[in-house]
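Sanity check

After download, print the first record. It should look like this:
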Amino acid sequence: MSKFRKAERNIDVSPGESVKIIRKLQEMSQNELAAASGVPQSTISAIERESINLGVERAKQLARALKCHPAVLVFPSWDIEKESAT
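Expected structure tokens:
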């Protein structure tokens, strides 16, 4: 009945890319995110460049500042339907 169809995922996003995308959507600079989260700007830059891992504790700090669930940052490409099929 609905003319809408479920959106399909077109790209995979890494945790670093997820942090960058959400930060930019909220119009925050790396310095602003650093001030809001307590994570140094240099660490945020390294996370976004994927030269260091995000990690659970940093994900929690950044998620609080970005007002999102940490899983959005840590598992951005997780597909529950594929997981339940295996």
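If your output differs, re-run the checksum step. Summary of this record's structure: Helices lie at 15-25, 30-37, 41-48, 56-66, 70-74, 80-85.
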